[in-house]
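Hmm, what's this shape?
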Amino acid sequence: MAGGKLSPRQKMINLMYLVFIAMLALNMSKEVLSAFGILNSKIIESNSITDERNENSFGQLSQKAQEQPGQYGEKKLIVEKIRKISKEYCDYLEGIKTIITRKTEKDAQGNFMYEQMDKGDLVDRLFFKGDKTSKEGKEFLEKIKNYPAQIKEIAGSKLPEVEVNKIEKRFATTPIKSKEAGATLPWIDYHYKGFPLIATVTKLTQLQADVKATESDVMASMFQSDLIAAASLTAYQPIVVLEKSVFFQGEAVKGKIILGKFDPKLIAKSVVVNGSSVPALAGQANFSFGSGNIGEHPIAGSFNFDENGKVISLPINDKYVVVARPKSATISADKMNVVYRGVVNPMTISFAGISADKVTASAPGLSSAGAPGAYSMRPGTGSEVVINVIGKLPDNSIVSDKKTYRIKGLPAPAGTIRGEMGVVKGSKSSLQISTVGAKMIDFDFDVSLDVVGFNFKVAGQPTIVVPGNKLNAQCISVLSKSTRGDQVTISEIKTKLVGAGSYMLQKTAPVIYEIQ
């Protein structure tokens, strides 16, 4: 490396680079070696998954080529050739890994002992001869350069230019500027000279991953427009076409299911529905007309297209049924099947087939929430409430319905210190300034709670009854006598619901504070 006609400065740079590589190898930690080994195993596992995916994609292509040889036969042959050269290249890389790891020990499970793969002399002797690239190294570089060129030659114009550029970039072997070496190094020197064995094995496995990813990308890009769309039934949607749109109880439901595919690029010249023209949109047309009298009615018309100078009409034939308006209300609690005392229960109340402005509802504690169909329920005393609903039909006739809801009290809250429940740990000074609170556990409503009193008990000291939600002077005095490990019990917590007047909640669960 120091011979030949190199300048003294270049000799010094090369020498420093060798020293750097030697230091890097000497300081390579076992954790880093293991990390490379784990990464190598992960890439191998990913390669196996990619192989399976590629095999499935090729199986779909083979099936389509058998069914429609004129459309897919040539493409199948192209993919077969690409898969062949990809396998040959992967096998070549696997052969190199076998050569450089032939002296590497394995554990009982057959895995390499990564922490012992810190030397790179086998790779250096294989790929390099002194300062120059060896015959095997040149072959290695040639294989990398030839692979994208072979793919481009086999696929020809069927492979998009953007995909060709991506593959060529993936397997580029241009020289790389090295900050450590202070010079631009050949690609193979930069990536493989002086590295630990496990690092080189991992890089070779990654090259195999690049090959498999390329094979997958080629298939996807070449056949994205026709193979995927034609081979996969997911491009189609089952469309249910009923004999009519409404059926009565006891009547057989009849119809058919067809497969259809939406084409957003297909726009009709004109669309006629029941004698009227409707706007033609991308792949569809929206229509609207009066429903008419009770009974069965046809939907007829046509989609009209220009094709080879002629108008092609696709007929529309369907039907719908008009039935009388329903006479039962739909009432639902938005968050539960009961209403709770002490909070605002949001409810949605409607009458099927009647607009919200023609529906009224009444019950003790029920009021409008300001939006159509939205109500607020504040139940009072008792164990249930009946909601009555009245709807006015277009002919001004009245229909009514009612439903009964159970009334339940709010669940008992749990006491808190600093917002924490159960057993809370901390210093005495932290407890002195903390607030005693309470909160609902797993409750659907957002509620605010106020603590108006509690009992304060330090182990071995008398119980103190405290008004409000903070420790008073008497509590602090008793607390000062406690020691590390003592527990303070805050119980008999009196809790009120904010905005609920005098409504008192059920007994609040105590909270324990352990002195640290």
In short: Residues 227-233 have pLDDT under 50 and may be disordered. Residues 8-231 form one domain.
